[in-house]
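Is this the right way to post structure tokens for a design question? Let me know if I should format differently. Anyway, here goes:
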């Protein structure tokens, strides 16, 4: 019997399973990094306690999750992310800024968990918050260096640990963008968020839109691969976990569907999915040394296979209103 981490239901069913080798190929091309690929495959088997990981879904709240429900740690990310990238403007940033416009932010304190290079904080500093009232948490050493150079207070420890106690203070606003789906022990996460949040405080969370995830997997695009993403959050799952922790889910919205953005992402993601299959042209091109020529070759290969995506695109366009964009956004309030 497998319990849903979102709502606690036992009504869960297996969607599919992935092997350690399949998951490793998702992150690392073995032609390009054979030693790194072998190490990652072994690490995943150790992490899962076996060679496979299931992806399951709850029939009550719709929450999808990896089983075993264990997150990747520092060793996983050091092996899997050869060239980490940091986002600039995203829809969830703009939506949060829109929401902040209607709130009293003067003199309020804020924390962003997983702040990256601080792009979102750059957008809100000196407009909504004094820079002296902004804190940023991240593991990445490059991120921390950049955040510190911008004048933000920084923390490198896990915010779930008791050692993370910024001056034994709490925050009026907490931001988590594309972070929560990476986390296990989700009740510990929410208990800690509740502890760190002041009464009448607000949390803004963005996670991948689960409707887009299931579309991608059903139509030959990328798998939302564990142990990178281990939770597929829904409005109902957010509501259930908020209720357990005395918090209020005030708003939950999907990013609107944008055809141009969708097509660009789908072409890239379907190419990357094909590049995970041994012996394909996409895999060969993906493994070429990083250069301008390789980027051109990847682009041409992706465009060459794009006509095969027409049935998937037709489905997506006809279901655009329910499919939505890449993100699911939530505002959570501590009302007492």
């Amino acid at each position: 019997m497998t319990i849903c981490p979102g709502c606690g239901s036992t009504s869960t069913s297996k969607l599919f399973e992935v092997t350690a080798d399949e998951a490793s190929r998702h992150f690392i091309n073995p032609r390009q990094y054979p030693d790194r690929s072998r190490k990652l495959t072994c690490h995943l088997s150790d992490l899962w306690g076996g060679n496979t990981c299931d992806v399951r879904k709850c029939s009550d709240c719709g929450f999808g999750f990896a089983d075993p429900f264990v997150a990747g740690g520092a060793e996983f990310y050091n092996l899997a992310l050869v060239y980490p990238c940091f986002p600039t403007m995203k829809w969830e940033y703009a939506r949060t800024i829109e929401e902040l416009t209607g709130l009293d932010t003067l003199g309020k304190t804020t924390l962003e968990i997983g702040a990256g290079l601080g792009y979102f904080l750059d957008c809100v500093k000196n407009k909504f918050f004094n820079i002296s009232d902004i804190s940023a948490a991240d593991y990445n050493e490059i991120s921390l260096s950049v955040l510190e150079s911008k004048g933000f207070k920084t923390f490198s420890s896990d915010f779930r640990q008791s050692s993370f106690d910024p001056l034994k203070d709490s925050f009026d606003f907490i931001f988590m963008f594309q972070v929560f789906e990476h986390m296990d022990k989700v009740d510990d996460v929410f208990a800690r968020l509740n502890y760190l949040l002041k009464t009448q405080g607000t949390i803004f969370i963005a996670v991948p839109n689960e409707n887009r995830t299931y579309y991608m997997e059903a139509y030959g695009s990328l798998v939302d691969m564990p142990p990178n993403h281990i939770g597929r959050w829904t409005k109902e799952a957010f509501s259930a976990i908020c209720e357990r922790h005395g918090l209020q889910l005030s708003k939950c919205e999907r990013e609107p569907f944008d055809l141009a953005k969708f097509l660009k992402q789908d072409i890239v993601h379907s190419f990357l999915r094909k590049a995970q299959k041994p012996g394909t042209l996409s895999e060969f091109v993906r493994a070429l040394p990083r250069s301008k020529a390789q980027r051109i070759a990847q682009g041409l290969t992706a465009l060459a296979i794009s006509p095969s995506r027409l049935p998937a695109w037709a489905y997506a366009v006809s279901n655009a209103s329910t499919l939505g964009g890449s993100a699911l956004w939530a505002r959570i309030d501590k009302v007492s």
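Format looks fine. Someone answered above. Worth noting: The first helix runs from residue 20 to 27. The chain has a mean pLDDT of 93.
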